[in-house]
C-alpha cells in the first residue's frame, strides 16, 4: 500500500512549506516542454544522446527551481548508487544497493523530521528518489546475478537490463524532466526504448495496431486527445473538488472531543468516509498531471485496444473509478499508486520467502518516511488485507449463486472497503502517535479486533502454499495440465503488468 506523503501544516498540494505554486508551475512548464520535446526532439530528428542531455538538464533545472539546494540529493543519491553498480560484484550488487539507497533514504527522513523539524521541502522528494534508484538497481541485478541461475520469471526478464547503463543514461532515467517531481516510477527498458524511438514499433507489432487484417495505416499516434480531452480535464475537476472540500471536511475533526461525544456512531462513519473522499482529489490532480506530462512527450503509449484506438496508460498511476467503486481492499490498493505498487510487488512480494504481505507493507512504510502514523497505517493494513482475503475466500462463494446475490455482495463489500480504507489511513494523515491512537480508541479499535477475529475464525492458507499443495496433490496428467494453465495465466498476468 503506497500513499503520497503529507505533513502537519503543509500546503494542500505539496508537503512542506510554501512550495505548491512552484510545484504546479514547474509541472505546467514540464507539460509545455513535453510537447516541444516530442515535436522538435523526436527520435526521427535527433539522436538519443541529445534527447538524454536535454531531458536531464531540464529535469535538474526543475528540481533546482522547485526544491532549491535540496535538489543536490538527486545527484548524491545517483552518484552513490552508480558507484555501487560499478564496484560491487554482480552476485551482491542488489544487496549493497538496497543498503545504500534505503539507508540514505532513512537518513534523509530522520534528518528532516527530527533535525529540521519538518522544515525540508518534502519527504516525497527522497522517497521517490530511493524508489526509482532501487527500482533500477533491482533491474540490473535481474539481468546479472539471477540470470546465471535461470531464476527469472517472464516479467523479470522483461525488466532485466542487458548492458550497464552509461552515466548519462542513468542520470536521464532518474532525473528526466517528465518524472523528477512527481514520477511515476517507470521501467528502465521502457524509458530507454522511448528515448531511442523504438517503443512505438515494438508495441505496434505486439497487437498489429489492434486490427488482425492489418489494413490500418501504421502512423504514430498523437497523445493530444488523451492529454487535452482526458488528463487535463481530470486535473481541473480534481483540483476544483479538493480546494472546495478539504477545508470543510478536515480529517482531524474526527478526533474532536465534542464531535465524538455528540455525534452518533453512524454519522461518525459517514463523516470519516466523506473526509477521506475530500482528501483524495489532491493526489488525483498530482498523479494525473504527471501522467499528462509523460503522455504529451509520447512516453505513455502502450499499444492499441482491440478497436484500434491507442492506449496511453503505460505508466499511469491510478484508475479513479476503480478506486472509488472498489469492492475489496486489494482492488483499492491495486488501482492506487499503481507503479509504486508494481515496484513493491516485484522487489519484495515476489521475492520474500516468509510472509511477503507483511514484508511488503513494512517496506512501503519505510519508503514513505519515519512518521509513526505511517507504521500504524501499514501495520493495520496487514490485518485488513489478511481479513479481506479470508472473507473473500470463505464467504464470497455463497453469493455467486445468482446475479442478485452477487450485486448485494458487491454493495456490501464496497461499503465495507470504503470504511476499512478510511479507518486504516487516518494515522497516515495525522502522522503523530497521540492523535492516531486517540482516533482508534474513540472507535474502540473495533476494526482491529474484527480483523483479528476474522483471521482466527476464517483461516486462509497462503497463496503460495495453496498452489503448491494443489499441484502436489494432483495426478501426474492433471498436474501437467494445471502447470500449462498456470503458465498461460502467468503469461497473461505478465502481459498485463507490462501494459500497466
Automatic annotation (TrEMBL):
Assigned GO CC terms: endoplasmic reticulum membrane
This protein's UniProt keywords: Acyltransferase, Endoplasmic reticulum, Membrane, Transferase, Transmembrane, Transmembrane helix
Membrane-crossing residue ranges in chain numbering: 20-41, 53-76, 96-115, 373-391, 411-433, 439-458
Highest taxon listed in the record's lineage: Eukaryota
Segments of this protein annotated with the region Disordered: 468-500
InterPro entries per record: LPLAT_7/PORCN-like (IPR049941), MBOAT_fam (IPR004299)
GO BP annotations listed: lipid modification
One protein family per Pfam: MBOAT
Subcellular location: Endoplasmic reticulum membrane
Its membrane topology: Multi-pass membrane protein
This protein's record includes keyword Acyltransferase: yes
Record-level Gene Ontology MF annotations: acyltransferase activity
Keyword Ion transport set for record: no
Protein name listed in UniProt: Membrane bound O-acyltransferase domain containing 2
Biological source species: Fundulus heteroclitus
Amino acid at each position: 500500500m503506497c500513499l503520497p506523503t503529507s505533513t502537519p501544516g503543509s500546503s494542500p498540494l505539496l508537503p512542506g512549506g510554501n512550495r505548491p505554486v512552484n510545484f504546479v508551475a514547474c509541472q505546467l512548464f514540464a507539460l509545455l516542454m513535453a510537447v516541444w520535446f516530442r515535436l522538435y526532439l523526436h527520435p526521427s530528428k535527433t539522436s538519443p544522446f541529445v534527447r538524454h542531455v536535454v531531458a536531464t538538464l531540464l529535469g535538474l533545472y526543475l528540481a533546482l527551481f522547485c526544491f532549491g539546494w535540496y535538489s543536490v540529493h538527486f545527484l548524491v543519491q545517483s552518484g552513490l548508487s552508480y558507484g555501487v553498480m560499478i564496484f560491487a560484484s554482480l552476485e551482491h550488487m542488489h544487496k549493497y544497493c538496497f543498503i545504500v539507497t534505503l539507508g540514505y533514504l532513512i537518513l534523509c527522513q530522520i534528518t528532516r523530521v527530527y533535525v529540521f523539524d519538518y522544515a525540508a521541502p518534502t519527504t516525497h522528494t527522497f522517497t521517490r528518489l530511493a524508489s526509482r534508484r532501487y527500482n533500477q538497481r533491482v533491474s540490473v541485478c535481474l539481468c546479472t546475478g539471477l540470470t546465471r541461475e535461470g531464476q527469472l520469471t517472464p516479467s523479470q526478464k522483461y525488466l532485466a537490463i542487458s548492458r550497464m547503463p552509461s552515466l548519462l543514461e542513468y542520470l536521464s532515467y532518474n532525473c528526466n524532466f517528465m518524472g523528477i517531481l512527481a514520477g511515476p516510477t517507470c521501467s528502465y527498458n521502457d524509458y530507454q526504448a522511448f528515448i531511442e524511438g523504438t517503443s512505438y514499433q515494438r508495441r505496434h507489432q505486439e497487437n498489429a495496431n489492434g486490427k488482425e487484417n492489418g489494413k490500418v495505416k501504421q502512423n504514430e499516434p498523437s497523445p493530444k486527445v488523451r492529454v487535452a480531452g482526458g488528463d487535463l480535464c481530470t486535473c481541473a475537476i480534481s483540483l476544483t473538488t479538493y480546494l472546495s472540500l478539504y477545508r470543510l471536511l478536515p480529517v482531524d475533526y474526527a478526533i474532536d472531543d465534542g464531535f465524538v461525544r455528540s455525534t452518533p456512531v453512524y454519522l461518525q462513519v459517514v463523516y470519516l468516509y466523506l473526509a477521506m473522499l475530500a482528501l483524495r482529489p489532491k493526489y488525483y490532480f498530482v498523479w494525473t498531471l504527471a501522467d499528462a506530462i509523460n503522455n504529451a512527450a509520447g512516453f505513455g503509449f502502450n499499444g492499441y485496444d482491440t478497436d484500434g484506438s491507442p492506449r496511453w496508460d503505460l505508466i499511469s498511476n491510478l484508475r479513479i473509478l476503480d478506486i472509488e467503486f472498489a469492492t475489496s481492499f486489494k482492488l483499492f490498493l491495486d488501482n492506487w499508486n499503481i507503479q509504486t505498487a508494481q515496484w513493491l510487488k516485484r522487489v519484495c512480494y515476489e521475492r520474500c520467502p516468509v510472509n511477503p504481505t507483511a514484508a511488503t507493507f513494512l517496506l512501503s512504510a519505510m519508503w514513505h518516511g519515519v512518521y509513526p502514523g505511517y507504521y500504524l497505517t501499514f501495520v493495520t493494513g496487514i490485518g485488513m488485507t489478511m481479513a479481506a482475503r479470508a472473507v473473500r475466500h470463505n464467504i464470497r462463494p455463497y453469493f455467486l449463486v445468482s446475479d442478485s446475490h452477487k450485486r448485494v455482495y458487491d454493495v456490501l463489500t464496497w461499503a465495507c472497503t470504503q470504511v476499512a480504507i478510511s479507518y486504516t489511513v487516518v494515522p497516515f494523515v495525522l502522522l503523530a502517535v497521540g492523535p492516531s491512537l486517540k482516533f482508534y480508541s474513540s472507535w474502540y479499535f473495533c476494526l482491529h479486533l474484527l480483523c483479528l477475529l476474522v483471521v482466527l475464525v476464517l483461516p486462509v492458507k497462503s497463496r503460495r502454499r495453496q498452489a503448491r499443495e494443489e499441484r502436489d496433490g494432483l495426478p501426474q496428467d492433471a498436474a501437467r495440465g494445471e502447470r500449462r494453465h498456470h503458465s498461460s495465466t502467468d503469461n497473461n498476468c505478465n502481459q498485463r503488468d507490462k501494459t500497466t
